[in-house]
């Protein structure tokens, strides 16, 4: 669990009032990059720790490298300790429902009067505008922001299979912190940063919006799209195994046919160019499908890789825990959990100077750092 002693955000201190995915993702990114991130939890701990079903992995996935402090901010003593602790931090993160932090007196307008250098990050459903008071979920904004429409077949909008907007919203919050820290070097003042689920989803759909603006033709959902490439699809191989194959140039099509021992196909006039192949794409895919049913993934994959043909098996999340590339590249590492067991976690998808920002400490137990952190305050308040 060791990483080099010096990380980019060493010396930056962040206090986090968050739960679920969006806000915790922002804090985790900053923590992985070296910031001291103090997670404020209510008595009994963040309820995200105990989510069942599809939410069971949220806390472990988005709260590493943080300290845990328990405060009841609904009491005068807890609130005052929180405010004093905020004053020792460079940035504050929150992702609670609209109006809650104002009701508690922990909103930006109130805190910035006392701490003008504070960078205050709100993770919300919507940026200021007609929708801003609505409650939002990742699924809600995927429906509103064009993503579900583009993902599912016609008439069957389908949400993406993971919390894309929550995670990316936290990422944009972290980008905002980095930019605000840089600006504070020049102005001496902090600022409020807002990141929102809806606007994040619209950003993801922006390319399709431009497609319509340029062509005046509504882009079809991805399952109904007209592909620009003749071979760009999932094929069923022997024993029902599936493999995505993409041949996006005439040269790659010829190479693919050589790999499949069918050099005769590119010689057929109807398959001579990509444009001709796209025009009769269903026919071509039927021909290739019949050929590929005679091949097995384990024998075909190395041939495709050697030939430089883009391909991918259809991998389930649980299979990634044993992915050889993730393990060899250092992207999947062990972490001690809050119950003392070990688990494998996915690191940030980047390297800096050839290194992966990693896991520096065990996942914090509820309130594990309360005494340590609050003892630094002038009032010496201890929960």
TrEMBL record:
Keyword Transferase: yes
SUPFAM superfamilies linked to this entry: CoA-transferase family III (CaiB/BaiF)
One GO MF term attached to the UniProt entry: CoA-transferase activity
Keywords attached to this entry: Transferase
PANTHER family referenced in this protein's UniProt entry, alphabetically: SUCCINATE--HYDROXYMETHYLGLUTARATE COA-TRANSFERASE
Protein name (record): L-carnitine dehydratase/bile acid-inducible protein F
Organism (species): Caballeronia humi
């Amino acid at each position: 669990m060791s990483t080099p002693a010096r990380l980019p955000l060493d010396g930056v201190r962040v206090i986090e009032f968050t739960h679920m995915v969006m806000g915790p993702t922002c804090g985790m990114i900053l923590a992985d990059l070296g910031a001291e991130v103090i997670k404020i939890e209510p008595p009994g701990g963040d309820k995200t720790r105990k989510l069942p079903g599809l939410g069971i992995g949220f806390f472990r996935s988005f709260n590493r490298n943080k300290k845990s402090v328990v405060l009841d901010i609904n009491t005068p003593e807890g609130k005052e300790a929180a405010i004093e602790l905020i004053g020792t931090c460079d940035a504050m993160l929150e992702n609670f429902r609209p109006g809650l932090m104002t009701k508690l007196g922990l909103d930006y307008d109130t805190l910035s009067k006392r701490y003008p250098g504070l960078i205050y990050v709100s993770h919300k459903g919507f940026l200021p505008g007609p929708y801003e008071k609505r409650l939002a979920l990742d699924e809600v904004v995927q429906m509103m922001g064009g993503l579900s429409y583009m993902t599912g077949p016609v008439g069957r909008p389908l949400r993406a299979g993971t919390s894309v907007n929550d995670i990316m919203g936290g990422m944009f919050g972290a980008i905002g912190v980095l930019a605000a820290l840089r600006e504070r070097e020049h102005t001496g003042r902090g600022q409020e940063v807002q990141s929102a689920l809806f606007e994040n989803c619209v950003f993801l759909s922006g390319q399709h919006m431009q497609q319509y603006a340029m062509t005046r033709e509504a882009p079809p959902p991805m399952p109904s799209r007209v592909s620009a490439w003749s071979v760009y699809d999932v094929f069923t191989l022997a024993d029902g195994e599936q493999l995505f194959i993409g041949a996006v140039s005439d040269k790659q099509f010829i190479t693919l046919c050589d790999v499949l021992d069918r050099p005769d196909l590119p010689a057929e006039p109807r398959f001579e160019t990509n444009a001709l192949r796209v025009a009769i794409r269903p026919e071509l895919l039927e021909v290739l499908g019949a050929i590929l049913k005679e091949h097995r993934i384990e024998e075909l994959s190395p041939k495709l890789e050697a030939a430089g043909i883009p391909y991918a098996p259809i991998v389930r999340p649980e299979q990634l825990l044993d992915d050889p590339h993730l393990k060899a590249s250092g992207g999947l590492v062990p972490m001690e959990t809050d119950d003392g067991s070990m688990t494998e976690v996915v690191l940030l998808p980047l390297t800096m100077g050839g290194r992966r920002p990693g896991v520096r400490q065990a996942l914090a137990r509820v309130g594990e750092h309360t005494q340590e952190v609050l003892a630094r305050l002038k009032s010496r308040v201890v929960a």
